[in-house]
Amino acid sequence: MEMENHRPSFTYMGRKFSDLSLNDDSSAFSDCNSDRSGEFPTASSESRRLLLSCASENSDDLINHLVAHLDSSYSIDEQKQAAMEIRLLSKNKPENRIKIAKAGAIKPLISLISSSDLQLQEYGVTAILNLSLCDENKELIASSGAIKPLVRALKMGTPTAKENAACALLRLSQIEENKVAIGRSGAIPLLVNLLETGGFRAKKDASTALYSLCSAKENKIRAVQSGIMKPLVELMADFGSNMVDKSAFVMSLLMSVPESKPAIVEEGGVPVLVEIVEVGTQRQKEMAVSILLQLCEESVVYRTMVAREGAIPPLVALSQAGTSRAKQKAEALIELLRQPRSISNGGARSSSQL
């Protein structure tokens, strides 16, 4: 398994982005937390109050009772009720997440994820997501065989199941050795599809999961081959999407694989990146310049394309009024863009000579 030695060193809120926890409120990415789809309709307010009251008084007995009712020997309705209540108990209390896992809930919940009943599948996915929020449970969930069922839910589940499966896979990917296993299970194309076709929350969850998974080189290649540049460019072009920063972070991470550069150009990324340099926020401008700099480093053709899009005036402005790091990147890119104009025979020389 080949991991990248370093990630982009963008800084936000005084900290390097690569050092941010993925559920840190200051992160550019979404907070992939539990139960963001609201309460399940089978759980009335009264039943929730009774459940939480019982849990506070004698949670161990209640948990054991619920785990027993996840078994396939019970009816689907009983399994649904047990999974729903486990999800409630694990919603906000880390201690319950540990107790539920120790009571043996993980394997039967994983079995529910493979259910043909879509609602039962959704309940199983959401309960596993809640349990995966506890670091102590991540390894057990992965080793118990959760990855492939979660990937199937990502492909065939309800919209909520897909979102929560993406979130659960993100949590499992925070263990480095799981990244390649998740990629090889077919998650990357499904996450790219979710990034392109899902709702706002799904797009945020997919981008976060992809950012985490793509620290593995082979997952970067999978993402590019799965057509990730198309939704990334589209989201970056839409300033109202609230996805410009997230998409730029993912794109920047992918720039270390050669396949990414022609893909960006083919999807119309150059004019979008130049526009961001001109009208984006300071952080967006810096990220766009960083991507353009990597794009142009070894290609006279790409330098010419970027220059023809009118990049030099906004780069000059950024070199005068941006952050110190943005100024450095803008100046380096300006120098690159001016080189082809001073070289005879256009691109006759190899890019290594430039």
TrEMBL record:
It comes from the Eukaryota. ARM repeats lie at residues 104-146, 186-228. Residues 63-339 form the U-box domain. PROSITE patterns: ARM_REPEAT. This is U-box domain-containing protein. InterPro entries: ARM-like, ARM-type_fold, ARM_PUB, Armadillo. Keywords: Repeat, Ubl conjugation pathway.
